[in-house]
Amino acid sequence: MLGLKLATDPRWVNIVESNIEEILTDHAWCEQKAASNAISLITYNSELEELVTELLIIAREELEHLQMVHDLIKRKGLTLGRERKDHYVNELFKFMKKDGSRKDALVDRLLFSAMIEARSCERFKVLSENIQDQELAKFYRDLMISEAGHYTTFLGFARKYTDNIDVDKRWAEWIEFETSIITNYGKQETIHG
């Protein structure tokens, strides 16, 4: 469904399990960034009523996920660490087209957002199926479903708001680019790392 070409090696979960505090801290900050991204899209596209309405829902859900991760961190007696840089997302950001019309920029930003949600969904699936901690397995299964919904929302809006971009062709380019960079990841106890 997600169209990703390279699956995460399930052995990545062994790395994650070696430092649960780190993965949860990284995950919390990913949720904060996802909420900020939705708010940023609203700010720059406030005239698109349907987009604003849906992104308000997503922003709220992402903040709820941040709260859920934070609650989990506290329940486990862990500490929310400082914000982490997400090198994967930064590499994806560089692939975003910076030229063209305002609407072209919106479409590419939506595809960028869809890509992040797709990979997060895939990673949550791997966690839910392979992590030993049953509370975390259920937690990540539930979040995987939510991320899949966000992915389809962003992709759907990219198709809706395009004027002259072949969204399927551009999405294929995003998938190819993501495939070329994801091989560098899966070696750290971070959501995208």
From TrEMBL:
CDD domains: MiaE
A Pfam family the protein falls into: MiaE
GO molecular function: tRNA 2-(methylsulfanyl)-N(6)-isopentenyladenosine(37) hydroxylase activity
One GO BP: tRNA modification
InterPro entries on file: Ferritin-like, Ferritin-like_SF, tRNA-Hydrxlase_MiaE
UniProt xrefs under PANTHER family: TRNA 2-(METHYLSULFANYL)-N(6)-ISOPENTENYLADENOSINE(37) HYDROXYLASE (PTHR42637:SF1), TRNA-(MS[2]IO[6]A)-HYDROXYLASE (PTHR42637)
Protein name: tRNA-(Ms[2]io[6]A)-hydroxylase
Taxonomic lineage from the root: Bacteria, Pseudomonadati, Bacteroidota, Flavobacteriia, Flavobacteriales
